[in-house]
Amino acid sequence: MKNKLEEIRSILIEHHQEIRSAIPLIASENITSPAVDEACNCDFSHRYAEGWVGQRVYAGCKYIDKIESLCMDLTKEYFNCCFADVRPISGVMANLVLYNAFTSRNHGKMMAMPIPKGGHISHAPFETSNGRKIYGTAGTVRGLDIKYFAFDEENMNLDVDASAKIIREFKPEMVLFGGSVFLFPHPVKELSEVAKEIGAHVGYDGAHVAGLIGSGYFQDPLREGADAMSLSCHKTLPGPQTGAVVSNREDLVEDLKNAAFPSLFSNHHLHNIAGFAVALTEMLEFGKKYHEKVIKNAQALGSALQERGFKVLCEHLGFTKSHQIVIDIGNFEKTVGLGGTLEALLEEANIIVNRNLLPWDIREGRHYMNPGGLRLGTSEVTRLGMNESEMVEIAEFFKKIIVEQQDPKKVRREVAEFKEQFQEVKYCFQSPNKAYEYLKFY
Question: Domains in the chain, please, with CATH?
Answer without folding.
Answer: 24-31+287-441 (3.90.1150.10), 37-281 (3.40.640.10)
